[in-house]
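Q: Convert this sequence to C-alpha coordinates.
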Amino acid sequence: MDAVAGNGQNVALVTQTLMANASGVLSRPEALALPRFLDLCSLCEAVVLLDRMEALGASGEYVSGLSSLLAREGLYRTFAPALSRDEVRRVALRLPDELAKRVTDGSGNDPSAAGETGAVAGLDYTTGLNDLLAQVDGLGGYASAGDASVKDRMYRGNSYLVVAAAHGLDYFPDFDRVPFVAGTLQKTYRSLPRQLYDKIAESLEEPLTGGDVVAEWTAMSTIPIPPVAALVLSRASSLENIPEQLLRVRDEFSGYRRYFGDFKAELQAADTIRERRKLLARYRTLLEEASGPRREAVSVTEMLNLTEKAVKVAAAPTLPTSYSALLVTQPVDWIRRWWCRRPLAILFRLDTKMPKLPEYQQLAARLWGPGPAARLHDQAAAHGANMQKLLSEAEVTFH
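A:
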Protein backbone atom coordinates (compact mmCIF):
# COMPACT_ATOMS: atom_id res chain seq x y z
CA MET A 1 0.00 0.00 0.00
CA ASP A 2 1.34 3.45 -0.89
CA ALA A 3 1.69 5.97 1.90
CA VAL A 4 0.05 8.92 0.18
CA ALA A 5 -2.02 9.71 -2.87
CA GLY A 6 -0.40 11.06 -6.00
CA ASN A 7 -1.73 14.40 -7.17
CA GLY A 8 -1.03 17.01 -9.81
CA GLN A 9 -1.49 14.35 -12.49
CA ASN A 10 -4.25 12.81 -14.55
CA VAL A 11 -5.23 10.66 -11.57
CA ALA A 12 -8.62 9.98 -9.96
CA LEU A 13 -10.01 8.33 -6.87
CA VAL A 14 -12.12 5.23 -7.48
CA THR A 15 -13.62 2.89 -4.90
CA GLN A 16 -12.81 -0.70 -4.14
CA THR A 17 -16.52 -1.39 -4.73
CA LEU A 18 -16.13 -0.28 -8.34
CA MET A 19 -13.20 -2.66 -8.74
CA ALA A 20 -15.08 -5.48 -6.99
CA ASN A 21 -18.18 -5.09 -9.16
CA ALA A 22 -16.17 -4.94 -12.38
CA SER A 23 -14.06 -7.94 -11.37
CA GLY A 24 -17.10 -9.89 -10.16
CA VAL A 25 -18.86 -10.02 -13.51
CA LEU A 26 -15.68 -11.41 -15.08
CA SER A 27 -15.11 -14.16 -12.51
CA ARG A 28 -18.78 -14.96 -11.79
CA PRO A 29 -20.87 -14.69 -14.97
CA GLU A 30 -24.04 -15.47 -13.02
CA ALA A 31 -23.55 -12.18 -11.10
CA LEU A 32 -24.18 -10.12 -14.24
CA ALA A 33 -26.75 -7.36 -13.64
CA LEU A 34 -26.97 -3.81 -14.90
CA PRO A 35 -25.18 -2.02 -11.99
CA ARG A 36 -22.18 -4.38 -12.11
CA PHE A 37 -22.04 -4.29 -15.89
CA LEU A 38 -22.07 -0.47 -15.85
CA ASP A 39 -19.36 -0.43 -13.19
CA LEU A 40 -17.30 -2.62 -15.53
CA CYS A 41 -17.92 -0.07 -18.31
CA SER A 42 -16.98 2.78 -15.95
CA LEU A 43 -13.77 1.06 -14.86
CA CYS A 44 -12.81 0.44 -18.50
CA GLU A 45 -13.33 4.13 -19.22
CA ALA A 46 -11.26 5.16 -16.18
CA VAL A 47 -8.39 2.92 -17.34
CA VAL A 48 -8.33 4.62 -20.75
CA LEU A 49 -8.99 8.23 -19.65
CA LEU A 50 -6.63 8.34 -16.68
CA ASP A 51 -2.92 7.87 -16.09
CA ARG A 52 -3.74 6.03 -12.86
CA MET A 53 -6.59 5.15 -10.50
CA GLU A 54 -6.23 5.30 -6.72
CA ALA A 55 -8.46 3.76 -4.04
CA LEU A 56 -8.51 4.15 -0.29
CA GLY A 57 -6.77 1.28 1.43
CA ALA A 58 -8.75 -0.85 3.87
CA SER A 59 -8.05 -3.74 6.22
CA GLY A 60 -10.15 -6.04 4.04
CA GLU A 61 -8.60 -4.88 0.80
CA TYR A 62 -10.21 -6.26 -2.35
CA VAL A 63 -7.85 -8.17 -4.65
CA SER A 64 -8.74 -9.86 -7.95
CA GLY A 65 -7.03 -10.91 -11.12
CA LEU A 66 -8.12 -7.64 -12.73
CA SER A 67 -6.96 -5.41 -9.86
CA SER A 68 -3.64 -7.26 -9.65
CA LEU A 69 -3.03 -6.87 -13.39
CA LEU A 70 -3.80 -3.14 -13.30
CA ALA A 71 -1.57 -2.74 -10.23
CA ARG A 72 1.34 -4.48 -11.98
CA GLU A 73 0.90 -2.12 -14.94
CA GLY A 74 1.05 0.89 -12.60
CA LEU A 75 -2.57 1.82 -13.37
CA TYR A 76 -4.16 1.12 -9.97
CA ARG A 77 -3.01 1.33 -6.37
CA THR A 78 -4.40 1.86 -2.89
CA PHE A 79 -3.21 4.55 -0.52
CA ALA A 80 -3.53 5.73 3.06
CA PRO A 81 -5.09 9.22 3.34
CA ALA A 82 -2.83 12.03 4.53
CA LEU A 83 -5.51 12.95 7.09
CA SER A 84 -6.59 10.71 9.95
CA ARG A 85 -10.23 9.65 10.24
CA ASP A 86 -10.77 12.19 13.06
CA GLU A 87 -9.25 14.94 10.91
CA VAL A 88 -11.46 14.00 7.96
CA ARG A 89 -14.47 14.11 10.29
CA ARG A 90 -13.53 17.61 11.49
CA VAL A 91 -12.96 18.76 7.91
CA ALA A 92 -16.40 17.45 6.96
CA LEU A 93 -18.10 19.22 9.87
CA ARG A 94 -16.71 22.58 8.77
CA LEU A 95 -17.67 22.17 5.11
CA PRO A 96 -20.74 23.95 3.72
CA ASP A 97 -23.80 22.49 5.41
CA GLU A 98 -25.33 21.01 2.26
CA LEU A 99 -22.23 18.82 1.92
CA ALA A 100 -21.32 18.36 5.59
CA LYS A 101 -24.69 16.84 6.46
CA ARG A 102 -24.35 14.31 3.64
CA VAL A 103 -20.92 12.90 4.59
CA THR A 104 -20.34 9.76 6.63
CA ASP A 105 -17.35 7.70 7.75
CA GLY A 106 -16.05 4.56 6.15
CA SER A 107 -14.10 3.14 3.27
CA GLY A 108 -13.48 -0.17 1.57
CA ASN A 109 -15.80 -2.53 -0.27
CA ASP A 110 -19.38 -1.54 0.58
CA PRO A 111 -21.86 -3.31 -1.72
CA SER A 112 -23.82 -1.39 -4.31
CA ALA A 113 -27.28 -0.30 -3.17
CA ALA A 114 -28.75 -0.50 -6.66
CA GLY A 115 -31.19 -3.16 -7.73
CA GLU A 116 -31.10 -4.98 -11.04
CA THR A 117 -32.29 -1.95 -13.03
CA GLY A 118 -29.55 0.26 -11.59
CA ALA A 119 -31.99 2.19 -9.40
CA VAL A 120 -32.04 2.07 -5.60
CA ALA A 121 -35.22 0.27 -4.54
CA GLY A 122 -37.87 2.50 -2.98
CA LEU A 123 -36.57 5.77 -4.44
CA ASP A 124 -38.47 7.69 -7.11
CA TYR A 125 -36.05 8.92 -9.80
CA THR A 126 -38.72 10.77 -11.79
CA THR A 127 -39.16 13.77 -9.48
CA GLY A 128 -35.80 15.50 -9.96
CA LEU A 129 -32.41 15.73 -8.27
CA ASN A 130 -33.51 17.84 -5.30
CA ASP A 131 -36.32 15.45 -4.43
CA LEU A 132 -34.08 12.43 -4.90
CA LEU A 133 -31.66 13.89 -2.35
CA ALA A 134 -34.55 14.62 0.01
CA GLN A 135 -35.69 11.00 -0.26
CA VAL A 136 -32.22 9.76 0.72
CA ASP A 137 -32.01 12.31 3.55
CA GLY A 138 -35.28 10.89 4.90
CA LEU A 139 -33.98 7.32 5.13
CA GLY A 140 -32.79 5.85 8.42
CA GLY A 141 -34.23 6.70 11.82
CA TYR A 142 -37.30 4.52 12.08
CA ALA A 143 -36.56 3.01 8.68
CA SER A 144 -35.27 -0.50 8.22
CA ALA A 145 -31.60 -1.40 8.49
CA GLY A 146 -31.63 -1.74 4.71
CA ASP A 147 -32.75 1.88 4.32
CA ALA A 148 -30.06 3.03 6.71
CA SER A 149 -27.36 1.17 4.76
CA VAL A 150 -28.55 2.80 1.52
CA LYS A 151 -28.31 6.23 3.13
CA ASP A 152 -24.84 5.46 4.50
CA ARG A 153 -23.63 4.29 1.09
CA MET A 154 -24.85 7.42 -0.69
CA TYR A 155 -23.39 9.70 1.98
CA ARG A 156 -20.13 7.73 1.86
CA GLY A 157 -19.93 8.61 -1.83
CA ASN A 158 -19.65 12.25 -0.76
CA SER A 159 -16.99 11.28 1.79
CA TYR A 160 -14.90 9.89 -1.05
CA LEU A 161 -15.43 13.19 -2.88
CA VAL A 162 -14.05 15.10 0.13
CA VAL A 163 -11.03 12.77 0.38
CA ALA A 164 -10.37 13.11 -3.37
CA ALA A 165 -10.53 16.90 -3.20
CA ALA A 166 -8.30 17.02 -0.12
CA HIS A 167 -5.63 15.05 -2.03
CA GLY A 168 -5.99 16.99 -5.29
CA LEU A 169 -7.49 13.97 -7.08
CA ASP A 170 -10.38 13.83 -9.51
CA TYR A 171 -13.24 11.52 -8.49
CA PHE A 172 -14.84 8.69 -10.46
CA PRO A 173 -17.94 7.65 -8.40
CA ASP A 174 -19.64 4.26 -8.67
CA PHE A 175 -22.60 4.17 -11.06
CA ASP A 176 -25.34 4.08 -8.41
CA ARG A 177 -23.82 7.08 -6.60
CA VAL A 178 -23.61 9.37 -9.66
CA PRO A 179 -26.94 11.24 -9.30
CA PHE A 180 -26.46 11.70 -5.54
CA VAL A 181 -22.94 13.12 -5.96
CA ALA A 182 -24.15 15.43 -8.76
CA GLY A 183 -27.12 16.65 -6.72
CA THR A 184 -25.05 17.26 -3.58
CA LEU A 185 -22.46 19.28 -5.50
CA GLN A 186 -25.18 21.44 -7.06
CA LYS A 187 -26.76 22.19 -3.69
CA THR A 188 -23.37 22.83 -2.07
CA TYR A 189 -22.28 25.42 -4.64
CA ARG A 190 -25.57 27.26 -4.44
CA SER A 191 -25.40 27.36 -0.64
CA LEU A 192 -22.02 29.15 -0.41
CA PRO A 193 -22.23 32.81 0.71
CA ARG A 194 -22.75 35.38 -2.02
CA GLN A 195 -19.85 37.33 -0.51
CA LEU A 196 -17.50 34.53 -1.56
CA TYR A 197 -18.79 34.50 -5.14
CA ASP A 198 -18.49 38.28 -5.35
CA LYS A 199 -14.87 38.00 -4.19
CA ILE A 200 -14.16 35.33 -6.81
CA ALA A 201 -15.65 37.61 -9.48
CA GLU A 202 -13.42 40.46 -8.25
CA SER A 203 -10.34 38.23 -8.37
CA LEU A 204 -10.93 37.28 -12.01
CA GLU A 205 -10.82 40.90 -13.18
CA GLU A 206 -13.69 40.39 -15.60
CA PRO A 207 -17.02 42.23 -15.87
CA LEU A 208 -18.71 39.55 -13.77
CA THR A 209 -21.06 39.35 -10.85
CA GLY A 210 -21.20 36.72 -8.12
CA GLY A 211 -24.21 35.31 -9.95
CA ASP A 212 -22.12 34.74 -13.08
CA VAL A 213 -19.61 32.77 -11.02
CA VAL A 214 -22.39 30.67 -9.44
CA ALA A 215 -23.67 29.80 -12.91
CA GLU A 216 -20.19 28.85 -14.14
CA TRP A 217 -19.34 26.75 -11.11
CA THR A 218 -22.61 24.83 -11.07
CA ALA A 219 -22.36 24.07 -14.78
CA MET A 220 -21.97 20.43 -15.71
CA SER A 221 -20.50 19.80 -19.12
CA THR A 222 -20.21 16.74 -21.31
CA ILE A 223 -16.96 15.72 -22.94
CA PRO A 224 -16.61 13.06 -25.64
CA ILE A 225 -14.84 9.78 -24.86
CA PRO A 226 -13.96 6.76 -26.99
CA PRO A 227 -16.48 3.86 -27.00
CA VAL A 228 -14.13 2.03 -24.66
CA ALA A 229 -16.40 -0.68 -23.28
CA ALA A 230 -17.84 -1.54 -26.70
CA LEU A 231 -14.34 -1.88 -28.18
CA VAL A 232 -13.06 -4.04 -25.32
CA LEU A 233 -16.08 -6.35 -25.34
CA SER A 234 -16.16 -6.67 -29.13
CA ARG A 235 -12.50 -7.76 -29.23
CA ALA A 236 -12.51 -10.09 -26.23
CA SER A 237 -12.68 -13.78 -27.07
CA SER A 238 -13.88 -14.64 -23.55
CA LEU A 239 -14.46 -13.06 -20.15
CA GLU A 240 -10.92 -14.02 -19.18
CA ASN A 241 -9.59 -12.10 -22.21
CA ILE A 242 -11.27 -8.78 -21.28
CA PRO A 243 -8.40 -7.44 -19.11
CA GLU A 244 -5.84 -8.04 -21.88
CA GLN A 245 -8.05 -6.30 -24.46
CA LEU A 246 -8.60 -3.40 -22.07
CA LEU A 247 -4.85 -2.77 -21.92
CA ARG A 248 -4.64 -2.88 -25.72
CA VAL A 249 -7.48 -0.37 -26.10
CA ARG A 250 -5.75 1.85 -23.54
CA ASP A 251 -2.58 1.83 -25.66
CA GLU A 252 -4.59 2.80 -28.76
CA PHE A 253 -5.98 5.92 -27.08
CA SER A 254 -2.77 7.31 -25.59
CA GLY A 255 -3.35 10.47 -27.65
CA TYR A 256 -6.79 10.95 -26.12
CA ARG A 257 -5.39 10.48 -22.63
CA ARG A 258 -2.71 13.11 -23.30
CA TYR A 259 -5.34 15.61 -24.49
CA PHE A 260 -7.52 14.87 -21.46
CA GLY A 261 -4.62 15.43 -19.06
CA ASP A 262 -3.57 18.62 -20.88
CA PHE A 263 -7.16 19.90 -20.81
CA LYS A 264 -7.38 19.55 -17.03
CA ALA A 265 -3.96 21.14 -16.50
CA GLU A 266 -4.75 24.12 -18.74
CA LEU A 267 -8.21 24.52 -17.20
CA GLN A 268 -6.62 24.92 -13.77
CA ALA A 269 -4.11 27.44 -15.13
CA ALA A 270 -6.72 29.61 -16.89
CA ASP A 271 -7.29 32.97 -15.17
CA THR A 272 -10.64 33.99 -16.66
CA ILE A 273 -14.01 32.42 -17.35
CA ARG A 274 -13.67 33.53 -20.98
CA GLU A 275 -10.39 31.64 -21.29
CA ARG A 276 -11.88 28.57 -19.61
CA ARG A 277 -14.78 28.52 -22.07
CA LYS A 278 -12.40 28.77 -25.02
CA LEU A 279 -10.35 25.90 -23.60
CA LEU A 280 -13.42 23.71 -23.23
CA ALA A 281 -14.51 24.39 -26.81
CA ARG A 282 -11.02 23.71 -28.20
CA TYR A 283 -10.47 20.53 -26.23
CA ARG A 284 -13.94 19.24 -26.93
CA THR A 285 -13.03 19.32 -30.63
CA LEU A 286 -9.68 17.62 -29.99
CA LEU A 287 -11.25 14.97 -27.77
CA GLU A 288 -13.97 14.31 -30.36
CA GLU A 289 -11.34 13.68 -33.01
CA ALA A 290 -9.25 11.52 -30.67
CA SER A 291 -12.32 9.49 -29.63
CA GLY A 292 -12.88 8.17 -33.12
CA PRO A 293 -16.28 7.22 -34.58
CA ARG A 294 -19.18 6.04 -32.42
CA ARG A 295 -17.95 8.12 -29.46
CA GLU A 296 -19.80 8.29 -26.16
CA ALA A 297 -19.59 10.87 -23.34
CA VAL A 298 -19.04 11.51 -19.64
CA SER A 299 -20.13 14.51 -17.60
CA VAL A 300 -17.61 16.59 -15.69
CA THR A 301 -18.21 19.11 -12.93
CA GLU A 302 -15.67 20.85 -10.73
CA MET A 303 -15.45 20.04 -7.03
CA LEU A 304 -14.45 22.12 -4.02
CA ASN A 305 -10.76 22.90 -3.94
CA LEU A 306 -9.70 21.71 -0.49
CA THR A 307 -6.25 23.29 -0.52
CA GLU A 308 -3.64 22.37 2.07
CA LYS A 309 -4.24 25.63 3.96
CA ALA A 310 -8.00 25.14 4.05
CA VAL A 311 -7.67 21.51 5.10
CA LYS A 312 -5.25 22.32 7.93
CA VAL A 313 -7.59 24.96 9.33
CA ALA A 314 -10.64 22.72 9.01
CA ALA A 315 -8.85 19.79 10.64
CA ALA A 316 -7.61 21.79 13.64
CA PRO A 317 -9.66 20.67 16.67
CA THR A 318 -9.68 24.06 18.43
CA LEU A 319 -10.56 26.35 15.54
CA PRO A 320 -14.24 27.10 14.92
CA THR A 321 -13.56 28.65 11.50
CA SER A 322 -15.79 27.27 8.77
CA TYR A 323 -14.51 26.51 5.28
CA SER A 324 -16.56 29.36 3.78
CA ALA A 325 -15.46 31.86 6.44
CA LEU A 326 -11.82 30.95 5.86
CA LEU A 327 -12.13 31.51 2.12
CA VAL A 328 -13.78 34.91 2.42
CA THR A 329 -10.81 36.20 4.47
CA GLN A 330 -8.16 35.26 1.91
CA PRO A 331 -6.37 37.76 -0.42
CA VAL A 332 -7.75 38.22 -3.93
CA ASP A 333 -4.80 36.50 -5.67
CA TRP A 334 -5.16 33.48 -3.35
CA ILE A 335 -8.91 33.33 -4.08
CA ARG A 336 -8.26 33.32 -7.85
CA ARG A 337 -5.78 30.44 -7.59
CA TRP A 338 -8.10 28.53 -5.26
CA TRP A 339 -11.05 28.92 -7.61
CA CYS A 340 -9.16 27.95 -10.77
CA ARG A 341 -7.47 24.84 -9.36
CA ARG A 342 -10.47 22.65 -8.63
CA PRO A 343 -10.43 18.88 -9.23
CA LEU A 344 -13.13 17.27 -11.38
CA ALA A 345 -15.90 14.85 -10.59
CA ILE A 346 -16.23 12.60 -13.65
CA LEU A 347 -19.75 11.24 -13.87
CA PHE A 348 -20.77 8.16 -15.84
CA ARG A 349 -23.54 8.73 -18.41
CA LEU A 350 -25.90 5.92 -19.26
CA ASP A 351 -27.76 7.98 -21.87
CA THR A 352 -24.89 7.85 -24.38
CA LYS A 353 -25.02 4.06 -24.19
CA MET A 354 -28.80 3.84 -24.54
CA PRO A 355 -28.85 4.22 -28.37
CA LYS A 356 -26.34 1.36 -28.53
CA LEU A 357 -28.29 -1.08 -26.35
CA PRO A 358 -28.78 -3.61 -29.17
CA GLU A 359 -25.01 -3.61 -29.78
CA TYR A 360 -24.21 -4.01 -26.08
CA GLN A 361 -26.82 -6.77 -25.83
CA GLN A 362 -25.16 -8.69 -28.66
CA LEU A 363 -21.72 -8.30 -27.10
CA ALA A 364 -23.01 -9.41 -23.70
CA ALA A 365 -24.79 -12.39 -25.25
CA ARG A 366 -21.55 -13.60 -26.83
CA LEU A 367 -19.59 -13.30 -23.57
CA TRP A 368 -22.16 -13.94 -20.82
CA GLY A 369 -24.90 -15.81 -22.67
CA PRO A 370 -28.23 -14.75 -24.26
CA GLY A 371 -30.30 -14.94 -21.06
CA PRO A 372 -28.23 -12.49 -18.97
CA ALA A 373 -27.84 -10.22 -22.02
CA ALA A 374 -31.60 -9.98 -22.54
CA ARG A 375 -32.05 -9.03 -18.88
CA LEU A 376 -29.40 -6.33 -19.24
CA HIS A 377 -31.28 -4.78 -22.15
CA ASP A 378 -34.57 -4.67 -20.24
CA GLN A 379 -32.91 -3.33 -17.08
CA ALA A 380 -31.14 -0.52 -18.95
CA ALA A 381 -34.31 0.50 -20.76
CA ALA A 382 -36.15 0.66 -17.42
CA HIS A 383 -33.69 3.01 -15.73
CA GLY A 384 -31.94 4.82 -18.57
CA ALA A 385 -34.58 7.47 -19.25
CA ASN A 386 -34.73 8.48 -15.58
CA MET A 387 -30.94 8.78 -15.33
CA GLN A 388 -30.86 10.87 -18.49
CA LYS A 389 -33.47 13.24 -17.06
CA LEU A 390 -31.60 13.63 -13.77
CA LEU A 391 -28.26 14.52 -15.35
CA SER A 392 -29.78 16.80 -17.99
CA GLU A 393 -31.52 18.69 -15.17
CA ALA A 394 -28.12 19.47 -13.64
CA GLU A 395 -26.24 20.02 -16.89
CA VAL A 396 -25.44 23.36 -18.46
CA THR A 397 -23.25 23.31 -21.55
CA PHE A 398 -20.81 26.21 -21.99
CA HIS A 399 -21.06 28.21 -25.22
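The chain is about 55% helix and 10% strand.
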